Amino acid sequence: MKKVELNNILDLIDEIKKLDALLLLHNNIGQDDFMISQYQSKKVKLMAELIDALASPKIQSEQSFSLIQKILGKFYPQISDRDLEDESFKEIVASI
Description:
mainly alpha, 96 residues, 4 helices, 0% strand
C-alpha cells in the first residue's frame, strides 16, 4: 500500500472517531435529533469511503477484508441480525 493510500485510510478512521464522539455527546444530552441524524449520515458516508478504499483492486486481499470486518465491528458493534429491518438484508443473512 502506498503512503498516500495509507494516509487517506487513517484520515477516514480519524474522522469516523470524531463523529462517534459527537454522536455520543449528542445522545447523552438527549436532544437535537436533527444533529444526530446528520452525524449518522456523515458517518455512513465515511464508512463507505473507508470500505471502498480497503476493497479497491490495488490493495484488496484477505487482510484488507479482515480489516473491514474489524472496522465494522468497532464502529457498529450494536448491529445484529435481529436489528435488520430490510427484508432483502434478512434474506442475504439467511443465505450466509
